[in-house]
Specification:
Blueprint (H helix, E strand, L loop, with lengths): L12 H7 L18 H4 E5 L11 H12 L5 E5 L3 H13 L5 E2 L5 H13 L4 E5 L16 E4 L10 H12 L4 H18 L10 E5 L3 H4 L1 H8 L5 E4 L1
Parallel strand pairs: 1-6, 1-7, 2-4, 2-5, 3-4, 5-6
Helix pairs in contact: 3-4, 6-7
């Protein structure tokens, strides 16, 4: 198997658990460093947010913050973990005269084609998307220069397999949040940040609007699993 996101939290352990492999079964693993100059080509900003995503006023704070940091002349991708929150924020920003393309209102193909057309004409473009836009989206060069991640991509176990894994870990005295949820979020966060640099020449900025990266104990592990971008904590 070969993938950019086989590891979670800088380890193959989560993959082994998902694949049903044990630590000493003879399987071999290799991590190959990226040729990208992350320090020089990209900046990771952890924004100053007065509240965390669990607070009821977080959606209003997203509207306020995005209105400040989005440059309407740039190619911007804003990623959400909640479709409801994405729609609420889009509605509020449109009232402030922001022009947006929002996932679900048109097909993915139409949104991307419109975005590329505007950027090729040296106009700005803003895309609002959820998890499906944080993976498999290739917008190299000037087609994407700013990725904004509104919230850490924590998932609630919903499938029978995930629920069974959680119950198994709990029964053995483990913590399903630290054993499953955090590694899974790590992998998704790496994928989301991976939308920015698609070639060795690309440059840009990633802004994360979730203070849990610096306020929670697991935040450091999530940050350390990201590529070594030039980092700014506001």
């Amino acid at each position: 198997l070969c993938s950019a996101t086989l590891r979670a939290l800088n380890s193959f352990q989560h993959f082994r658990m998902q694949a049903g492999l044990s630590d000493n079964d003879g399987s071999q693993y290799l991590h190959v460093d990226s040729p990208f100059n992350y320090q020089q080509n990209a900046q990771l900003v952890i924004a100053d947010m007065p509240v965390e995503p669990t607070a009821p006023q977080f959606t209003d704070e997203l509207v306020r913050k995005l209105a400040k940091i989005i440059n309407v002349e740039e190619a911007t991708l804003v990623l959400f973990s909640s479709h409801w929150q994405m729609k609420q924020v889009a509605q509020a920003l449109r009232k402030q005269k922001f022009s947006l393309k929002v996932q679900g209102e048109e097909s993915r193909q139409e949104i991307i084609a419109h975005h590329k057309n505007k950027i090729e004409k040296n106009q700005g473009s803003i895309i609002f998307g959820s998890q499906s836009f944080s993976e498999g989206l290739d917008l190299p060069g000037k087609l994407l220069t700013h990725v904004i991640i509104t919230k850490l991509p924590f998932a609630v176990p919903t499938s029978p397999v995930e629920e069974a894994q959680s119950e198994y870990i709990s029964a053995k005295g483990g913590n399903p949040f630290l054993s499953i949820t955090v590694p899974d979020a790590s992998k998704k966060l790496v994928q989301a940040c991976g939308r920015l640099l698609r070639s060795e020449q690309d440059t840009g900025k990633i802004t994360i609007l979730d203070r849990r990266l610096v306020s929670k104990r697991y935040g450091k592990a999530l940050l350390d699993a990201l590529p070594p971008f030039a980092r700014i904590v506001e």
